[in-house]
Each structure stands twice: as C-alpha cells, then as structure tokens.
Amino acid sequence: MAKAMARHILVKTEAEAAALKKRIAAGEAFDVLARKHSTCPSGKRGGDLGEVRPGQMVRSIDQVIFKKAVREVHGPVKSQFGYHLVQVYYRE
Length: 92
What we know:
Peptidyl-prolyl cis-trans isomerase C; peptidyl-prolyl cis-trans isomerase activity
C-alpha cells in the first residue's frame, strides 16, 4: 500500500492561505509559518502530519498527497475544515 510523509498549514480563509503561500515562495520557512498560523493541532509540529496512507485524510487532501508533485507547496486546497497548504516530503 502507498504511503507518504506530508505537512500542511490549515487556515480559515483562502486569502490567508494564498498569502502564506506567497511568503513560503519568498523564502519563509513552512514549519515556522505552520507553528504561527495553522489552526490544526499539527501546527505545533510545524504542520507535520507524519506518515499517512490513502484514505486517512479528507479526500481533497488525500488527492494532493498521493497525486501531486513531491516537495512543492500545493494549495490553497479547500476542505470542510478550511483551506490547506500541503507539502509532500516523500511518497512510495
């Protein structure tokens, strides 16, 4: 079965997620921004979701983790929880 390691930042609005994505693109550290802005408990770990398998995350996040390019920041991705920025470390 496939598995991946990923991290994310969860915020309330699409605009907030887009602004954070620009800051990451400009060189700010993903984990630092996650600790400061993410509303998910994983924010305390720099957004680290640990190792995940297909079906463990909500569908929209699962799609990013298992189908999009590795090591890029994807998003904003909408879910019932808000808007996410997602980065996959590795996938096998």
